[in-house]
Amino acid sequence: MSSETLKQRIITVDALRGFALLGILLAHMIYWYNAGPLPGSIFEKHNDTASGIIGIVNEILISGKFFAFFSFLFGLSFFLQMNSMEESGRPFVWRYAWRITIMGIIGLIHHAFWRGDILSIYAPLGFILLPMRKLSNRAVLIIGVLLAINLPSLLMQLPGLIEQLTSTTPPPPPPSGPPPGPDPSQAFFKTVYKSDIWSMMKNNIISIGEKFDFQFGSGRIYVTLGFFLLGMYSGRKGWFAMSSEALKPIFKKIKNKSGWVVLVTLLGGVGIYGLNEGFKLGWESSPLVGFIFGTLYNLNNAALVVFYVTGITLLMNRKFWQNLLYPLAPIGKMALTSYLLQTALGLVLFFGFGFGLVGVTAPWLNWLIALAFFILQAIACKWWFKKFYFGPVEWLWRSLTYFKIQPFRKKQASA
């Protein structure tokens, strides 16, 4: 690989990571950095047109997509690190295991401040990649695709679906009122958004099991691992090590196929919703229609992530788009620090020990704030790398990984 190709690959991967961070920030900011159920009354205050449009855009293009996008890049980075260390004769397994352990500790600290932390999910899944790296390319691809479309969750729903469809006993009518007992959304709102920081942290630590319950219940943990594997597969195939001319036909083909899946599944989901609303078919209580809708949703999410990765990579091989997208590279290079700073923004703006703006600012305004903050992050990261080799958290992580203080500040050229 030429030095020019290597440089472009590094910038491309960093820019993709920066784009993923933008999507993650938008997904979290729109509804006040919530990581649990919020009372419906908070959402009812923001039924204006702008918030409605932003909500639809978020649901179709953002929500549930960018954690998977970032997972793909994690899997790709796993392969690139493994390949680099093995080619140079350095031990990989124990070094990587220690590196992942440190990331998990950072994730647990982050979780204490915010339940939506993803690092504490990445860490245990990162260990699973170690034995899976021995699988063939074909096995990695097949398992990755099946997990990325959330097949385990769909299969776990099948027994109950079959039982409901074959049962001669009519299902009980849905409850007409709220479930008995305390409202979980009110409890979450009180303990997370309205308590002091120490009480909130204690509650977050105690509730870590609920995070994993959600991950398995929603299937997100399977999707994350699936995109880990797809990222590793792309690294094995050398796609991000190719010249732009060699990569273009491969990614163009994948982009087109994934784009068709996105379109067909989106039309299918919208069609089901439109028919049900227009003709009052009562499909919202049908387990079969719910299963079909869920399948379309999972296929759409996975295909859209693939479309994003391939489409943006192709754009970054064009001069015009390079000028727009390459500025994302510094923030992607400092992804861990940037991710934690985004959480700090959400905590300061929306939580009780900060400005307490949960439910006060409209979703559309939250997005404007997010975009402004992201632009400032990108500018700050570009300035930072003129003076430093690593982001501050990345430097700490790297120093702990190698049990040695790493170079941090760049030496300024003498006048």
Automatic annotation (TrEMBL):
- Keyword Cell inner membrane included in the entry's annotation: no
Matching InterPro entries:
Bact_Transport_Assoc (IPR052529), DUF418 (IPR007349)
Q: Does the keyword Chaperone apply?
A: no
Membrane spanning residue stretches: 12-33, 53-80, 92-110, 116-132, 139-162, 221-239, 259-276, 288-315, 336-358, 364-385
| The DUF418 domain, residue ranges | 256-404
Record keywords = Membrane, Transmembrane, Transmembrane helix
This protein is called DUF418 domain-containing protein
Source species: Sediminibacterium sp. KACHI17
What broad taxonomic lineage does this protein's source fall under?
A: Bacteria, Pseudomonadati, Bacteroidota, Chitinophagia, Chitinophagales
